[in-house]
Each structure stands twice: as structure tokens, then as C-alpha cells.
Design goal:
The chain is α/β, with parallel strands linked by helices. The protein has helices at residues 8-16, 30-33, 53-56, 69-74, 92-106, 117-120, 131-146, 162-168, 175-191, 204-212, 237-264, 284-307, 312-318, 327-333, 395-407, 430-434, 437-455, 498-507, 518-530, and strands at residues 46-50, 110-114, 150-156, 197-202, 267-273, 276-279, 339-343, 347-352, 370-373, 375-376, 379-380, 383-384, 391-392, 412-418, 460-466, 485-487, 494-496. 41% of the residues lie in helices and 15% in strands. It starts with 7 loop residues before the first helix and ends with a helix. Bound molecules: beta-D-glucopyranose (BGC).
Length: 531
């Protein structure tokens, strides 16, 4: 663990007088920037990197932070590859200044990060606010603004105080809605004078499946044929969890709009896991299966938030297993969003299971009677990556944006995550990891696809690379590296990969919004003085 650097003076010095932290060694690679150019995107477009608290912070017992669900889970032997934990992670808790400097040097003008719920509220609403946790995020926000980097804050990205699981079963209970709104309110109060872009919850659709259908994320609930867990019901629980998360989101948005928006002037959305689904064959059944897959993944989240109820196709297949919104709830949830957030990594082929033979689980309504594969006639949909399910399919980004544009007209979109991890077979030598030409190509090609979608009318406002740096990749521990920056697992030293250099060259190493208003800077300085 490193030493703490909180005082104002060292903060100021580090931000402005530390050329050794910037990426001066970056070579400008003219050739590579030619295909897709910064000028293919509007001037005010946001380019950023994304991270989440548990994946990078470490400092897990420091300065009053409480235990989270992921702290407890990662300490259970066998749950995470190599029994890795986020105890230290990237030690961002102590190195955030360096990390801000590195994003600045790449020319990024935005940064999406999440707040560790148990650092702010170690026991949820059943305990006190941890002021030292608040100070930590104040310092990050102020540091970003001083560097002209717009903070995009995810209020909840997978980790919450374990207390809430122990008391009432967290997201399986409607009480969690209250806890989330309580937490969100504190975030708006403490950070909303400077944070103008909020994302309530990350990937409610993915969490529900991983934690309550497959049982591989905490609290590890599942039932056969999906998995063997000590408790759970894979057919029902994911639906209840998403229902509670949707209402928690909607209530937090309502609170923001009523009590904070006028004074703070920010906007608020949510980020869903948004992969693309193409039919496996030209057969009508597979085409319908691909539509169903999009409905069971994307519309499951965005139909209620935008139109006030679940898609009718889900209701038809799931019947009463799918929870219902009361009329009051429908009014709260309908329209509870300013922009759509999409985390997009890959595209799947989709096969119909209503009329043909599939694996056992695909016949359950919760799975929408479709099955996905990456192979058609033995040929993969794209090049493999380090995440077994993900393949490189750049056209998928354009396709998913087109789908969203048609289903939800007039809604602006942020690509809140898009990123690449190399297949394990690509080697562990540091030189190989640093020379990440495949990641460079991934981003070039996905950005080309994004630009095309925007030329065709997709209202996309920003693009966030997952991730700023290699980090704790959930159940894969540190074996999968998504970062633009290489992190040495022992020394925690950060080193820019070729992809970081490519971004610097692409972005001109020159942030669009160098400094915000002087009042924000003044606020920033005050809060740093107070720290
Ligand atoms: C999550 C990240 C994760 C990334 C890569 C997204 O589903 O939001 O936390 O690290 O995918 O797997």
C-alpha cells in the first residue's frame, strides 16, 4: 500500500508541476490516426475511459470503509480465479492523482467512475456517512475538473454494503430501493455541485443473470439447470432483482429532478449491458429469436424506463413470473432518464428454441427461448478475445445504435463501455501486453462503426473505453487485462500500452474542455482545503 496524499498543496503540485507523470514518451503515430479521425466526431463529443470502484480502488479497510458484497465474496476460496481479491486492486485509492494525470495526457475529456457505496455508507442507511469516503471522491472530482475532464459518476456498479444483504437480502427486497435512494441523495448532495452526468446503476440486466441465474456473482443464487447453488430460483429471482433495480433507479431520478436538478443542472441516466444479436440463419424463426434476444436484454431495461412497462413479448412468455408495476410506479418509472447508456462489447448469433432443439436452459421462459453462439458453420463471428463469450464484431456497435434509435427515438446515447482484452494465448510477457495492436485495431474499427451510426442519425454523445487500466475483472481476477494502461500486479506501476499512445495521437493529446468555469475551480479548491 502506498502513502496517502490528501493535503491541498501536494495535490496542486502534483497536478500542475509533475511533467514526469505525463506521457511525454508517446510517439505520435501519424499512420494509425488516419483511418478514423477525431474530426469524424463533433467537437463537444466526450471521449473518456471507464472504471468501477471495486475493480480499481483497493484500500478496502481504509479510512472507515465498510465491507461490501464483493469483499466478502472474493475472500471465499474458489470463487475468483487465483483467489484474487480487490483488497489492493490498482491502489487507485492512493494513486488517483497519477491516474488523472495519465488520462489527461491521453487527451481524454471525460472519465466514468463509480462510487463505492460502502466507502460512503459503511452500513447503508443503518449507519453514518463516512466523511473520509466523501473526501476521497471530492478529491477525484476536483482533480478531474482541474484537468478539464468531465466526471461521469456511476452511483452503483456491483458493490454495495454487505450489511444490506445480511439484513434483508439486498436486491431481492424492495427495501433495497430505499437504501439506493438514500445513497443517491448523499451523492447528489455531496458531489452534485460539480457532477453533471449521473448514471444510477450499472448493467442491471447483467447483474441479475450473473448473480441470480448463473450464481457466479454474489450472492451466488441459482437453481438447476442453470447451476448448483445452496439457494436461489433462477427462473424467478433475476426478474425480481431487475424490478427492484428499475424502481430504485426511477425513484433516484425522481428525487434528483425534484430536489437537485434546478440548482445543479445535471442530467441522469442508466447503463445497460447492450450486446448485439444477429440471427444464426436467414430462417424467420432465427430472425424472431434475434429480436427476442434484444427484447430480453435491452428492452427489459429500457422499455419500462422509457415507456413505463415491460415489453409485451416478455409478458407473453413469462406471464405472472414477470413482476408488475402499479399505476403509481408506472408513472414514476416512465420517462425516468435523460440518456441511454450502452455497454457494448460483442455480437452473438441467435438461434430459435421455440421450434428447434437447444440446450436445456433455453427452454425456460426466463431465457426467452433462444440460444446464442459465436459460430456459424464452424466459422466464428469475429476474432476471439480474452473473455470467452466476446468476439470482435465492429459492425455490432452500429447495429445496436440503429436498434436503439428506432426503438427509442429522440433519446441521446452514451457508449458507456466498449473495450478489448487479449486472448490468454497471446502471452504474458510485458512487451507483448504493452504492444497491444489488437486493442488498437479493436478501437479503430469500433470507432469507425460508431461514426457511421452517427452519420446515419444516431444521437451518440460520448464514448468510454473500458478500461483506463488493467484491473480486477470480477470472477476472472487479474487474469484478464482490459486496460489502456498496463498495471504491474506487484509494483502497481502503470505503463501506457500502444493503445494509450494511439488514443493520445487520435485525440491530439489535447483535451477539448481544458478548464471549466472559475466558480467550479474555486469550489474545488475550497473542498480540497477542507480535506
Ligand atoms: C462491466 C465491467 C467489466 C466489463 C468487462 C462490463 O460488463 O460493467 O465492470 O469489467 O464488462 O467484462
Amino acid at each position: 500500500m502506498g502513502t496517502k496524499i490528501h493535503p491541498y498543496f501536494s495535490f496542486f503540485l502534483l497536478l500542475f508541476l509533475s511533467p514526469h507523470l505525463s506521457l511525454q514518451s508517446f510517439a505520435q503515430n501519424e499512420d494509425e490516426a488516419e483511418e478514423i479521425k477525431r474530426s469524424d466526431f463533433p467537437d463537444h463529443f466526450f471521449f473518456g475511459t471507464a472504471t468501477s470502484s471495486y475493480q480499481i480502488e483497493g484500500g478496502y479497510v481504509e479510512d472507515g470503509r465498510g465491507m461490501s458484497n464483493w469483499d466478502v465474496f472474493s475472500h471465499i476460496p474458489g470463487k475468483i480465479k487465483n483467489d484474487d481479491t480487490g483488497d489492493v486492486a490498482d491502489d487507485h485509492y492512493h494513486r488517483f492523482l497519477e491516474d488523472i494525470e495519465l488520462m489527461h495526457s491521453m487527451g481524454m475529456n471525460a472519465y466514468r467512475f463509480s462510487i463505492s457505496w460502502s466507502r460512503i455508507l459503511p452500513k447503508g442507511r443503518f449507519g453514518k456517512v463516512n466523511r473520509r469516503g466523501v473526501t476521497f471522491y471530492n478529491n477525484i472530482i476536483d482533480g478531474l475538473l482541474l484537468k478539464g475532464i468531465e466526471p461521469f459518476v456511476t452511483i452503483h456498479h456491483h458493490d454495495f454494503p454487505i450489511e444490506l444483504d445480511q439484513r434483508y437480502g439486498s436486491w431481492m427486497s424492495s427495501q433495497m430501493q430505499e437504501d439506493f435512494v438514500f445513497f443517491a441523495k448523499i451523492c447528489f448532495e455531496e458531489f452534485g455541485d460539480r457532477v453533471k452526468y449521473w448514471i444510477t446503476i450499472n448493467e442491471i440486466n447483467l447483474v441479475a443473470i450473473k448473480a441470480y441465474l448463473e450464481g457466479v456473482y454474489p450472492p451466488a443464487h441459482c437453481s438447476p439447470p442453470f447451476g448448483k447453488c445452496s439457494t436461489g430460483n433462477s427462473d424467478i429471482e433475476p426478474l425480481i432483482v431487475v424490478h427492484n433495480m428499475l424502481l430504485a433507479h426511477a425513484k433516484a431520478v425522481r428525487l434528483y429532478r425534484i430536489h437537485f436538478h434546478e440548482k445543479q443542472g445535471g442530467s441522469i441516466g442508466i447503463a445497460a449491458c447492450g450486446h448485439m444479436y444477429e440471427p444464426l440463419t436467414d430462417h424467420e424463426f432465427d430472425k424472431k429469436a434475434a429480436d427476442r434476444a434484444l427484447i430480453f436484454n435491452i428492452a427489459w431495461v429500457y422499455d419500462p424506463i422509457i415507456y413505463g412497462d415491460y415489453p409485451k413479448e416478455m409478458r407473453e412468455l413469462l406471464g405472472n413470473q414477470l413482476p408488475s408495476f402499479s399505476n403509481i410506479e408506472k408513472n414514476i418509472i416512465r420517462g425516468s432518464l435523460d440518456y441511454i447508456g450502452i455497454n457494448h462489447y460483442t455480437t452473438f448469433y441467435t438461434k430459435d428454441c421455440l421450434h428447434s432443439t437447444c440446450s436445456q436452459g433455453s427452454y425456460r421462459p426466463i431465457k426467452g427461448f433462444f440460444e446464442t453462439t459465436a459460430y456459424r458453420d464452424g466459422v466464428s463471428i469475429g476474432d476471439p478475445t480474452g473473455e470467452a463469450r466476446f468476439f470482435v464484431v465492429p459492425r455490432g456497435l452500429e447495429e445496436i445504435i440503429n436498434y436503439i434509435k428506432e426503438r427509442y427515438p429522440n433519446k441521446s446515447i452514451f457508449i458507456t463501455e466498449n473495450g478489448y482484452s487479449p486472448p490468454q494465448g497471446d502471452g504474458n510477457k510485458v512487451e507483448d501486453i504493452l504492444n497491444d495492436t489488437k486493442r488498437v485495431n479493436y478501437h479503430k474499427n469500433y470507432l469507425t462503426s460508431l461514426a457511421k451510426a452517427m452519420r446515419n442519425g444516431g444521437d451518440v454523445r460520448g464514448y468510454f473505453v473500458w478500461s483506463l487500466m488493467d484491473n480486477f475483472e470480477w470472477i476472472d481476477g487479474y487474469t484478464t487485462r482490459f486496460g489502456l494502461l498496463y498495471v504491474d500486479l506487484h509494483t502497481l506501476e502503470r505503463r501506457p500500452k500502444l493503445s494509450a499512445q494511439w488514443f493520445r495521437s487520435f485525440l491530439g493529446g489535447n483535451p477539448q474542455r481544458l478548464v471549466k468555469s472559475s466558480s467550479l475551480i474555486t469550489n474545488a479548491s475550497h473542498s480540497l482545503m477542507d480535506a
